[in-house]
Write a structure and sequence with these properties.
By secondary structure, the chain is mostly helical. The protein folds into two domains: 35-76 and 79-121, Arc Repressor Mutant, subunit A; 125-267, Four Helix Bundle (Hemerythrin (Met), subunit A) (Up-down Bundle). It has twelve helices and two strands. A hairpin with a 7-residue loop joins strand 1 and strand 2 (120-121). It is globular and about 60 Å long.
C-alpha cells in the first residue's frame, strides 16, 4: 500500500492517524472508530486550528481544544449554554482562561459570545448552512475538475485506497466521517489551488458537526459512498464535467439532509 504523506496542513495529523488506523488491520477488514478514538481525532484537528491563532502550548489552548472537540463530537449541542463558572471548576482555573479559550472558538464559528450574556454553542443558522455548503461545493468542484484532468497514476491509486477505506468504514458513522475527511483533504491537496484549499480548511470546524449530522440520517452514508465511488470512476475516466456534477449533487444531497434534520430538531423543541 502506498503511504499517504502528511504535510503541514490543518488535516495532516488526521490523515496520518487515520492512515495508521486503516493499516492496522487487513485491507479488507472493516474499519471501526470507537468514541474515545474519535474524540482524540477531534482534539487533534482542533489543536492544529488553534495553533494557528495561539502558537504556544497553554491552558487556554487546551481548554479550547477540549471544548471544541466536544462540540465536534456532538457532546455539546447547538444552543447549549457554556457556563464559565462550571468550566473554570472543571479545568481548575479562573474564568479568565475560560473566556480566552471561548474567544478562540468563537473565531472558528463553534460558539457565540453575546455581550453581557452567557456564551453558548453556536446555534444552527439555516442561511449560514446554505452558504457554507454552497461555498464548499464550489471549491471542491474546482478541485475535482483539476484532478480529473490532471491526476497522475499515483494520485489515482491513492484515491482508490481512500475509497476502499470508505467502503471498509461504511458500518461505522465515526469511521466513515473520518475517512471522508481524509479523502477531501487529499483532494484539496492535489486540486491545484492553494487558496481554495486554505478556504476549505478555514471552514473545517464549522463543517464537521454538519457532516456528522448529515451522515447520521437514514441511508445518507450509503448514498454518500455511492457518490464517491462514481466520483472516483469519473476521475479515472478523466471526465471533469461528470466529476463536477457529482460533487455538486453530493453536496446538495448532504445539505437537504442537514436542513431536514434541523427542521425536525426545531419541531421537537431543540435549542
Amino acid at each position: 500500500m502506498i503511504r499517504i504523506e502528511s504535510g503541514d496542513t490543518v488535516n495532516s495529523a488526521i490523515r496520518e492517524a487515520f492512515h495508521r488506523l486503516a493499516c492496522s488491520a487487513d485491507t479488507l477488514a472493516p474499519i471501526d472508530v470507537d468514541a474515545p478514538t474519535s474524540m482524540e481525532l477531534s482534539r487533534r484537528i482542533v489543536r492544529q486550528v488553534v495553533a494557528q491563532q495561539h502558537d504556544r502550548p497553554s491552558l487556554v489552548a487546551e481548554i479550547a481544544i477540549e471544548i471544541g472537540a466536544e462540540i465536534i463530537e456532538g457532546a455539546r449541542h447547538p444552543g447549549d449554554d457554556l457556563n464559565t463558572v462550571d468550566l473554570a471548576r472543571r479545568f481548575s482555573t479562573s474564568r479568565t482562561p475560560i473566556r480566552e479559550a471561548l474567544l478562540l472558538l468563537e473565531t472558528q464559528g463553534l460558539i457565540v459570545v453575546p455581550p453581557r450574556r452567557r456564551p453558548r454553542v453556536a446555534p444552527s443558522d439555516v442561511d449560514l448552512v446554505h452558504e457554507i455548503y454552497e461555498l464548499r461545493s464550489r471549491l471542491l468542484e474546482m478541485a475535482a475538475a483539476h484532478i480529473a484532468a490532471r491526476a497522475s497514476e499515483t494520485e489515482i491509486i491513492l484515491l482508490r485506497q481512500m475509497i476502499n477505506d470508505m467502503e471498509r468504514a461504511k458500518h461505522s458513522l465515526r469511521a466513515f466521517l473520518w475517512s471522508n475527511v481524509v479523502l477531501h483533504d487529499y483532494m484539496t491537496s492535489i486540486g491545484g489551488n492553494r487558496l481554495a484549499r486554505r478556504v476549505v480548511e478555514s471552514l473545517l470546524l464549522r463543517t464537521l458537526p454538519l457532516r456528522r449530522l448529515s451522515l447520521a440520517q437514514p441511508d445518507r452514508l450509503l448514498r454518500s459512498l455511492d457518490d464517491h465511488r462514481r466520483l472516483l470512476k469519473a476521475i479515472e475516466d478523466h471526465d471533469a464535467d461528470l466529476a463536477i456534477a457529482l460533487v455538486r449533487s453530493n453536496h446538495l444531497s448532504a445539505l437537504r439532509n442537514v436542513l431536514q434534520a434541523l427542521e425536525r430538531d426545531r419541531a421537537a423543541g431543540a435549542p
